[in-house]
Amino acid sequence: MVFLVEESTLLKLSPNLIKIIEFLSEKKTTHNDYLIALTITVFKEADFIVKNNEDRGDYLSLELDPRQWKINGAYRINLEHRSIRELNCKLDAIPVGDVIILNLTSINNAIKTRCTAVETLEFVNLHSSDVNSRFMNLKTFSHRIKNNLITPLKCDVLNHLKVVNPSLPGLPEELILKILSMLPEADQINLHKTCQKFENLFKSLYEYKSGVKKSCEYESYMKLLRLGRHD
């Protein structure tokens, strides 16, 4: 059974976090180094691994020591997904004072970069004599990385590839149409404005299959749409 970062407590850390602390405690490292190592551990739980472009021998050290990813003060890390090559991405981490800005960008697909900012001292305490207290608020941190970076990037890539996924745009069209039909008209209009896919789906929701006649519902939809465009 896998012991996740978010399941760690002050009494018991996940084995991966213990390895990080044991390894980095022997090195000249900073709060930022610890946070980056923690971030990579969360990515590993989501089936991302550090891409090794060079034959450096010890893969464990490569994964744990974030100092070798630092270039001009920023961390640049290439990540590979274990099973889906299209999900390969790069993580750029830019320290700004006690905050690290994390940018996650797809390598193989032209989609937007996902970004989040993390306060280092909220999650790392190098001055604690208790090893289990070196990392704090791990559930919050893990959820932030997964919810703000990993999951959105996965959904964006799979939507770009037209692969079914857990996001609303990634659901089968029949299911989306069923959901849309249950929304109030005002909510339908707002959702219609978000992307071309929803615009086309809304039109199909109110048109007859023949495409020749239009129902009263469709006329009502068009009226609301015209009003919505002038908001």
Automatic annotation (TrEMBL):
Any one GO molecular-function label of the UniProt entry: protein kinase binding
Domain F-box: 165-211
GO biological process: positive regulation of autophagy of mitochondrion
InterPro entries per UniProt: F-box-like_dom_sf, F-box_dom, Fbxo7
CDD domains in the record: F-box_SF
UniProt xrefs under PANTHER family: F-BOX ONLY PROTEIN 7
Record-given protein name: F-box domain-containing protein
